[in-house]
Amino acid sequence: MSSTVISNIASLVTNDPSLGDRSPLGLIRDAALVIDGDRVSWTGESSKAPATDNRVDADGRAVIPGFVDSHSHLVFAGDRTEEFNARMSGRGYSAGGIRTTVAATRTATDAELETNLVRHLTEALRQGTTTLETKSGYGLTVHDEERALRIASAHTDEVTYLGAHIVSPDYADDPAAYVALVTGEMLDACAPHARWIDVFCEKGAFDGDQARAILTAGREKGLHPRVHANQLSYGPGVQLAVELGAASADHCTHLTDADVDALANSDTVATLLPGAEFSTRAEWPDARRLLDAGVTVALSTDCNPGSSYTSSVPFCIALAVRDMRMTPDEALWSATAGGARALRRTDVGRLSPGAYADLAFLDAPSHVHLAYRPGVPLVDEVWRRGRRVA
Ligand code: NIG
Ligand code: FE
Asked: Any idea which positions bind Zn(2+) (predicted)?
């Protein structure tokens, strides 16, 4: 197994609080990192780095764990430029726009869907994302949901069945029959390709009772729950996520004190998706309130053609710091270790011995520049499983 030392790193974020400055980021200055095969085997001060076969000079750049984007919707066709344009001229966002993408996705071939997925995965990778969750939810038939998950699972391990995105237009007059399909034949076809099950618990999508039935059925088939919760309005999503032991409640834009308390006393991560509030001109989720209550917060893109068409985690970090009152350290942690928690992963989102060597070099001396220099393409080099990939 070949080993490589990366030395002369101005600042290294390990996300291991037993290392470096002992903060949650486990920051080591003037650092080095050793990779054996696909894993990190050593981190410490550059001057103490062991000799290895290969040497890479970071030349004073910062190194951070690759981003863990724990929420995206990348199996789709078409785009929604007109809808975005109308919104920026004053129209509001509603879940109804999902139907436009459903229509385009159903008519696309498998090859077209896969090409579009790979295009967006490559775009995300170039911006530092080395682990990415993605969902179905733009098919809403047994055939179209199954093929979305099959295509996604060829490219990522983190695949989520979201047949319950909205009630299929084919069942507009009989939502109960659609829930029966989602929990029956569609679930049977989809479960073999997915790790997670998700539901959009919202007015105009699925209510609390429907969402509970869907997530419970998924759990019986071995899928782990996560929930689109409290995005557009107050509602039962967050409490349901906690009740069912979901890995994550995603969006969390409209929360009561009881919702915040429930999250704080649970293992459910609150995943914040500021790209959605940006692109829908909605109010920001209050990250500070969640963090101060002791909730574990993840930060992800929600990349999708309707509510948040960005694959850029650095952009989301800048928004979170500027508009959601997160510190640059908290935002970086949430976009790496937080995303890993939201996917119940311990092998990614950190750069301490034993973790996968998934990392990004920044063209900057510190991760703080991700928020300090918004919009600047600072991700310089990306490594996944110990090898340079972008
Ligand atoms: O997470 N909220 C539900 N689903 C997506 C939006 C999907 C769309 O508008 O196409 C979201 O924001
Ligand atoms: Fe989403």
From this structure: 71, 73, 228, 302
